[in-house]
Amino acid sequence: MSGHSKWHNIQKTKGAADAKRAQAFTKIAREMIVAVKEGGSGDPNNNSRLAAVITKAKAANMPNDNIKRTIDKALGAGNTDNYEKIVYEGYGPSGVAVIVETMTDNRNRTAGEMRHYFDKFGGNMGAANCVSWSFDKKGVIVIDNEDEELDEDTVMMEALDAGADDFEPDGETFVVYTKPDDVSPVAEKISAAGYKLLSAQVEMLPQNGYIKLTDEDDIKNMQKMLDMFEDNDDVQNVWHNWEDAE
Questions:
Q1: Would you say the C-alpha torsion 145, 179, 239, 63 has a positive or negative sign?
Q2: Is 90 exceeded by the pLDDT of residue 217?
C-alpha cells in the first residue's frame, strides 16, 4: 500500500535514547490512565482502548511492572489525574500537513503552546479537520528485521493469517496494516509468533503519500517544529505528510 510514513520518519518519537524512552513511557502512561477511566475497566479483555495502549506500551519496551502500576494508579480512588484529548491541525513550511494529538489537563496552556510552535517555524495552526480529512486512520505494526534474516513471504503469510489487511517491506522492517480496532489482537498474534515489534499503534496515514521539501530553510524549520511538538509533554503523537530525506 502507498503512503505510509517510513520507519525512519517516525522512529524519533519512539524513545530510542534513554531520555526519549522515559518521556515516551510517561506519555503512554497518561494515555493508559485515560483509557482506564473512559473504558471503565482495568482489564484489557473488557476495555479495547486499554488493550490497544498496552500493545503500544509493550512494543515500546515499557516494563510490565510499569504497565501494572499505571493501571493500578488509574483504578485508585485517590487518582485525580484529569486529562482530555485534543487534536490540533495545521500546516508546516510549504504547506506540509500536520496533525498533533495531545492529552492535557490544561487546554489553554496546550493550545497556546501548539499555536506558538506552528507560528514560530513558518507554519500556521488551522481549524479542526483542515488537514485530517486527507489522512486515513489505520493500525500500523512495525516488525524488526534489522539483521535481514526474516523471510518476507513467511512474515507476510503469518501477518495475513493473524488478521492483517496489508503488508509491505520497508528497509530493515516489515510494516503490517490493520483496521484501527484490530491492531492489538493482530500485534499479539505476531508477537506470539516470535517477531520483535518496534511499534504497534493506530496512526494517521496521508492518503496521497508524502511530499518532499527542497528548500534548506524549510527542511530545518520543519524538523525544528516536529522536535518542539515531540518534546512537549502534552503531545502524544504527531502525524504529517513530510518525507524526511534521512
A1: negative
A2: yes
